[in-house]
Amino acid sequence: MTHDEDRLLRRAIELAATARTRGEAPFGSLLAGPEGEVLAESWNTVLGDDDITAHPELKLARWAARELDSGTAARTTLFTSCQPCGMCTGALARSGVGRVVFALSSEQLDGLRSSGTGFADVPQHGPALYAEARVPVEGYY
Fold first, then answer.
1. Which one from 14, 57, 107, 132 is the annotated catalytic residue?
2. Is 24 a catalytic residue?
3. N or C: which end of the chain has fewer CB atoms below 10 A?
4. Are 81 and 88 in contact (CB under 8 A)?
5. CA-to-CA distance for 56 and 39, rounded, in angstroms?
6. What is the per-residue pLDDT across 81-115, written as a single tens digit (0 to 9) for each?
């Protein structure tokens, strides 16, 4: 990583600390433009917003999709204090953000959590009813 990337990742960690001082889960992110300029910043506001999707990565993915053209978005980098969860990863892929740089991996985060603070997997069953389910989708993409 470059000196500028280190600086931006450290800023994401500072945003995570801000979240924690405000009573939120300690996660922070920023979106940097092609020249390393900070375009937008966010931290976790799940509790304050009463919104389980108010992760900083998801909020910045929404911002990028709404505010940036696809060429600019593809040249951005999201710097984040922790590896994005599955929900945020999907949003980032759809937003067109170019890449993600994270400080803590999901495995490292799990090692810092006390037991019982994770989320249980929700059982999923399928695929089913392919012939019916494909009708509204076929030809869309």
1. 57
2. no
3. C
4. no
5. 14
6. 999 999 999 999 999 999 999 999 999 998 898 76
